[in-house]
Give the backbone structure.
Amino acid sequence: MTANPAPNAAPASESAPSSLIIEDGVCVAMFAYDVGQHIDLNAVERIVGGQSQRRGLKKRRGSPRHFEFDPAPITLTQDIESIEVAGRALEPQADLTLYDFGAVTLAYRIDLRGPLGALVDIGVELYENAALLASSRKQVEAMMAILAPAVRKGHVAEFVEDYCVYQILALRDHPLERAVRSGGGIFAMALRADREPLSDQAQADVLGSRLSFGQDDTAIVDWNGAILLDADSDDGLAVLAYANVELLEMRYLDHQLDRALEIAWEATQARGWTAFLPGAGAAEQRRVAEFQIDGALLFEGVNNAVKLLGDQYLARLYRLASDRLHLPDWDASIMRKLDALDRMYQKITDQRAAWRMEALEWVIIVLIAVSIILPLMGLK
């Protein structure tokens, strides 16, 4: 069965009816970090023993085995400090998911049971929440210190990407699809982290990015978060978490390539007489080559971590999230920079070869001059 995107929805009411009560639901606040060039997931399992869990996708809804993580990431559960968001305490444990290409996601959970309208306050307080950001970095750094032997070129980069997913599993006395009809304004305000009702145009922009599989489920995906109205949405959560990780890695790689291009540019500039010394420019050439290799490995690792074939629901959900996060634009930008770096590396190589040839010519000229002058001076 093929999933079909929901048609662009007209703006819903600005507030949800008081009768809409979330009976079962959770908000998952995710923070993604780059922690190294590669994580040996088998080594992680050996270090943590029985505390880890390999999490693939469950293949529900008749989806073919064409959407799968390769290799499956590992999830660890950590105890966390007590933090409140909008008057609600976070669950006492958080999940840390590790991907083999050197990224991790720390996921906090907040119980959503209560009025649907409370999503707005939660969304506003989660936006750029300093306490959660500091806590997430502290948790990741502590775990990476333990897992250091399993991480190649380990570090915790300054870059971080956060994303919030509101999983609404059941409404009291109402089917889930009722929330789509009546709570659209609330969803839009929560996803855009704004307590003021959004304009019709802004609501349409948020609610238009929707995907449904059956009559009682809907995914609304925006750039800052998503709503999953579904009694069984763990696979969708895993897909959205991966899309957020991919955005983080694309941002990080783009920054690294900018640095590499600056180094390559400096290496191509005139170096005076030092350019003719043995080994001149070799260090810059090695650094540029290292950036090339690391960049290509990261780009391929991230883009090949998920197998996307066919037209099933999860693949379409990924493409929807990818479009909202502008991942194709990031991919195109990175490909251009990798190509530019390759051309500059070739120019550096050619330039060094020219310098060596020029230096050799001067050595030959000096030797010829010496061989002529010495006999004239009566010296042998």
Residues 124 and 193 are 4 Å apart (CA to CA). The first strand starts at residue 21 and ends at 34. Residues 1-17, 57-66 have pLDDT under 50 and may be disordered. The two ends are 94 Å apart (CA to CA).
